[in-house]
Amino acid sequence: MQVQRVVLNSRPGKNGAPVPENFRLEETTLVPDLKDGEVLVRTLYLSVDPYMRCRMNEDTGVDYVAPWQLFESVDGGGVGVVESSRCTTCSEGGVVTSFNWPWQTYAVMKGSVLQKVDPQLVDGHLSYFLGAVGMTGLTALLGVREKGNVIQGANQTMVVSGAAGACGSIAGQFGRLDGCVRVVGICGSDEKCRALVDDLGFSAAINYRKEDVPTRLKEHCPHGIDVYFDNVGGAISDTVITQMNKGSHVILCGQISQYNKDVPYPPPLSEEIQETLQRKNITRERFMVLNYMHKAEAALCELSQRVKAGQINVLETVVNGIENMGDAFCSMMKGGNIGKQIIKISE
Ligand code: NDP
């Protein structure tokens, strides 16, 4: 059968922004002769995520993901349906997901790398398995719970950077649900600011591209900042940390502002910011969702329930067609998405 797939065509270099031309769409022939343990899957939705940027380098610089190889199929989070199966645990018609789904319209995969998922968990909204009821939701929920020290009734203020993105939009909602009296989001457009306040219940939002972040933070956080969910790093985070209270907590989730630079992860802080952290006894431990997979099942259950109950609102930006994978990835890296960036591959 003829299938389409996306390969890595070139690398942007450690110090370059990715461009859609780094990816190439190919037609290829797939022989669906399944061996024992294999399944043929049809791809429904694919995910593009910031961590993929390091996979574009020859060396990712981290031990938990491998670099993509030039001219080979790119892979990442995906969800699809089993078309035919020679695997005892995957039945035809079942919905499955994987963290290593090839960017391909159909693929032969080992059943052992696929997780079966129940469409009822997301009321049939299968792309949520890549976002709010998948890795993104887990990152937000477990990040807040494991590193945030949010306490009901403690009158805490939370700030979220990258707040209108996939993780940030959910993290802020959990901050509120778990007891923060004030949740302020920082993001890159007025439209995103409106969505945070009107659709997601944030107390306030700051557009870092056009507003003065230190001034606006002082206005919106008159009692200082107790919890900071950091998705971006760089100058925005330095500003937030400067306004944090004694004994407060940074959830070090990601540092996307530094991903197109040749710096280690997490990128080093200035002496001044390190001194602030020390003087104010602010915790800033690295959070890695993959270290908490033993808590994933219960957390996914909570995410599913809260989404179904309307306690967590989900935002997505969906584009159609495998030919748009590279565009969608590059757009997400520059802020083109509100909520989770999803690519719909087939019905
Ligand atoms: P998002 O949906 O948040 O998309 C990325 C967003 O980052 C863009 O929409 C853009 O929004 C913002 N951004 C891009 N460049 C900059 C910049 N220079 N300064 C400020 N903001 C910028 O992606 P995810 O929710 O998937 O990921 C968010 C963060 O969480 C990333 O840092 C990622 O690496 C991290 N992460 C960490 C995990 C963990 O286990 N620790 C797991 C999953 C994700 P805007 O318009 O606001 O600029």
In short:
The chain has 347 residues and is of the alpha/beta class.
Give an overview of the whole structure:
There is one protein chain. Strand 9 (182-187), helix 4 (190-198) and strand 10 (204-207) form a beta-alpha-beta unit. The protein has two domains: 2-131 and 314-344, Quinone Oxidoreductase, Chain A, domain 1, CATH 3.90.180; 135-290, Rossmann fold (3-Layer(aba) Sandwich), CATH 3.40.50. The mean pLDDT is 97. Strands 3, 4, 5, 6, 7, 14 and 15 form a seven-stranded mixed sheet that branches. Strands 10-9-8-11-12-13 form a six-stranded parallel sheet, sandwiched between helices. A two-stranded antiparallel ribbon has the order 1-2. With 347 residues, it is of the alpha/beta class. The two termini are 18 Å apart. The protein has nine helices and 15 strands. NADPH dihydro-nicotinamide-adenine-dinucleotide phosphate binds next to helix 2 and helix 3.
Query: First CA to last CA: what distance?
Result: 18 Å
CATH topology of the largest domain: Quinone Oxidoreductase, Chain A, domain 1
Low-confidence stretches: none
Q: Could you estimate the helical fraction of the residues in percent?
A: 25-40%
For the record, the CATH class of the largest domain is: Alpha Beta
Helix and strand string, N-terminal first? EEEHEEEEHEHEHEHEHEHEHEHE
* C-alpha Rg (nearest Å): 20 Å
What compounds are bound to the protein? NADPH dihydro-nicotinamide-adenine-dinucleotide phosphate
| Whole-number mean pLDDT | 97
Structural class: alpha/beta
**CATH homologous superfamily of the largest domain, by name?**
Medium-chain alcohol dehydrogenases, catalytic domain
Largest sheet: 7 strands, mixed
* Portion in strands: 25-35%
Q: Label the overall shape.
A: globular
State the total count of DSSP E strands. 15
